[in-house]
């Protein structure tokens, strides 16, 4: 057992909280202080087998409920989660190192909203009828089967709820595998579904690492669907494993998104928006704009204002309401970020701002680095084209629309981006030329949950969000009846 403030988490299988069959445990560390905050099951093949069996067993009765019944269950989860709003924010901030205000506004808010949103969509699903002269087609949506839901550490409950809600709403049963580094709110979700009495086996959760728990889950013969959010290299392994048994697959992977700033933009709003897109969640959001492209006429003025805004952000104690930047997820991730900053220097980059924050002794073993802005790099340099996934942005100058588009598209990724201009015709024209799944004009991370979410190129396969989620988490079947 861990000490007083610490937790011992358990797997949740068939409505029971149980220890891992392996008898092994992993430590969960606070990113801010480095202390152990929980022990997490290090599950293996047998744990996965039990969870998949439980999900399979629960499938017939769960899938035979009406959409309205299942939508009502989603609302019950949302209602219960809402009573734990502050607890979600506190646990997420503690586990990820992110500021409490962000955990409240983004993580807690979206986790509740995801369940409400999909409840509403599923409740209002229309039957599709296609009449012919001599026959009628009726399209119905059936569950796919047992779903494997695998999520990363940057937005733990936000992303898990984004998958669980549409998956069970459409009649599937699921086995969740959250990141071993941020298991606390996944545990909270299991406690929530347990408290409201969700039928056992509909939602199961197996903690553990990617190799021990994630890999056997994806390859399990009774898993019919895999929804994975994580890094591109892991996504490639997951895709290979899922493809051999024709599992339905959705991959939400990495990004290296450009923020394109034209000289006719509203400079004040643009600076604020681009600072937010570069550094929200310490730059650990797949949608973050880590390549900032500025038109030459306003380059100097933009950079001056941008640096001043970046340096004004308060970094430190994640539980302080005024903190804007917290800690990075792990010492390994911090080392990766530091290596990229060294590479940038070797590649000829100039560090305009960066270094380490001056924090109290309590945080000396945490994973801290100041927001870092790098200029003078070639657009083909490693730091300008590879995903760093931390508080590091590169700034580049461009002369015209064509050059901005070329630089923006000069990466293996194609997830998102933003364009900042007062000429909306130009903004839309440029947007259509960018090879990504999503783009914002004069805003960033402005989310309507009805729209498609996902990337092209190495940023993923498939779309989630709104009806795209409902379509992914179901099988459409057409029933054609010949008229008499
Ligand atoms: P990883 O790819 O390392 O891990 C994602 C999840 O997959 C974790 O739960 C991990 O377990 C698990 N996993 C690892 N190996 C395997 C395997 N062989 N089979 C099955 N599961 C496995 O990503 P990170 O957690 O480091 O997250 C950061 C990445 O996620 C970034 O690249 C980011 O861009 C991307 N991301 C993409 C989003 C999108 O919507 N496109 C949104 C958010 C993040 P464990 O970590 O416990 O070992």
Protein model, in words:
- This protein is α/β, with parallel strands linked by helices.
- The chain folds into two domains: 5-253 and 460-480, Aldehyde Dehydrogenase, Chain A, domain 1; 258-448, 3-Layer(aba) Sandwich (Aldehyde Dehydrogenase, Chain A, domain 2).
- It is built from 15 helices and 23 strands.
- The protein has helices spanning 45-63, 67-82, 85-96, 100-123, 156-169, 184-195, 210-219, 232-243, 267-279, 299-311, 331-346, 382-385, 401-408, 424-433, 466-472, and strands at residues 7-8, 11-13, 16-18, 25-29, 36-41, 128-131, 135-143, 146-150, 173-177, 203-205, 223-229, 248-252, 257-261, 289-295, 350-353, 372-375, 392-398, 413-414, 417-420, 440-441, 456-457, 460-461, 474-482.
- A seven-stranded mixed beta sheet has the order 15-16-17-14-13-19-20, sandwiched between helices. Strands 10-9-8-11-12-22 form a six-stranded mixed beta sheet, sandwiched between helices.
- A hairpin with a 3-residue loop joins strand 6 (128-131) and strand 7.
- The protein is globular, with a radius of gyration of 23 Å.
- The termini are far apart.
- The model has no long low-confidence stretch (mean pLDDT 97).
- It binds NADPH dihydro-nicotinamide-adenine-dinucleotide phosphate.
- Residues 150-154, 177, 179-180, 209-211, 214-215, 218, 229-231, 234, 237-238, 252-255, 286, 387, 389, 415, 455, 460 line the site of NADPH dihydro-nicotinamide-adenine-dinucleotide phosphate (NDP).
């Amino acid at each position: 057992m861990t000490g007083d403030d610490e937790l011992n988490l358990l797997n949740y299988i068939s409505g029971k909280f149980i220890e891992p069959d392996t008898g092994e445990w992993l430590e969960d560390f606070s990113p801010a202080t480095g202390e152990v905050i929980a022990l997490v099951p290090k599950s293996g093949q047998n744990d996965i087998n039990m969870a998949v069996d439980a999900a399979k067993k629960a499938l017939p009765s769960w899938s035979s409920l009406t959409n309205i019944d299942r939508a009502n269950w989603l609302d019950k989860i949302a209602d219960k989660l809402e009573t734990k709003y502050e607890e979600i924010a506190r646990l997420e901030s503690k586990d990820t190192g992110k500021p409490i205000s962000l955990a409240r506004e983004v993580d807690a808010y979206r986790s509740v909203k995801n369940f409400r949103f999909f409840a509403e969509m599923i409740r209002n699903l229309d039957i599709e009828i296609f009449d012919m002269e001599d026959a009628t087609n009726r399209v119905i949506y059936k569950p796919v089967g047992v779903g494997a839901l695998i999520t990363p550490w940057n937005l733990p409950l936000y992303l898990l709820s984004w998958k669980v809600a549409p998956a069970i709403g459409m009649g599937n049963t699921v086995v969740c595998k959250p990141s071993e580094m941020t298991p606390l709110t996944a545990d909270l979700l299991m406690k929530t579904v347990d408290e409201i009495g969700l039928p056992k086996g509909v939602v199961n959760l197996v903690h553990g690492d990617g190799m021990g728990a994630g890999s056997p889950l994806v390859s399990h013969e009774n898993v019919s669907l895999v929804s994975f959010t994580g890094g591109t290299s892991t996504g490639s392994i997951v895709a290979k494993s899922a493809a051999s048994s024709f599992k339905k697959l959705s991959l939400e992977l990495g990004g290296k998104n450009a923020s394109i700033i034209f000289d006719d933009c509203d400079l004040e709003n643009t600076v604020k928006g681009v600072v937010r897109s570069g550094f929200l969640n310490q730059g650990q959001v797949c949608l973050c704009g880590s390549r900032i492209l500025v038109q030459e006429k306003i380059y100097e003025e933009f950079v001056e204002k941008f640096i001043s805004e970046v340096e004004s952000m308060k970094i430190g104690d994640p539980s302080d309401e005024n903190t804007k930047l917290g800690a990075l997820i792990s010492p390994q991730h911090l080392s990766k970020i530091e290596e990229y900053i060294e590479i940038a220097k070797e590649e000829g980059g100039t560090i305009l701002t960066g270094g380490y924050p001056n924090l109290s002794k309590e945080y000396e073993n945490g994973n801290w680095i100041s927001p870092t802005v790098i200029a003078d790099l070639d657009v083909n340099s490693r730091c300008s084209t590879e995903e760093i996934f931390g508080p590091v942005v590169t700034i580049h100058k461009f002369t015209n629309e064509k050059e901005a588009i070329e630089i923006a598209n000069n990466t293996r990724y194609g997830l998102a981006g933003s364009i900042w201009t007062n000429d909306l015709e130009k903004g839309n024209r440029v947007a259509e030329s960018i090879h990504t799944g999503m783009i914002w004009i004069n805003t960033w991370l402005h989310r309507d949950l009805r729209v498609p979410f996902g990337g092209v190129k190495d940023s993923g396969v498939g779309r989630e969000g709104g009806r795209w989620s409902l379509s992914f988490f179901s099988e459409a079947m057409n029933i054609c009846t010949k008229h008499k």
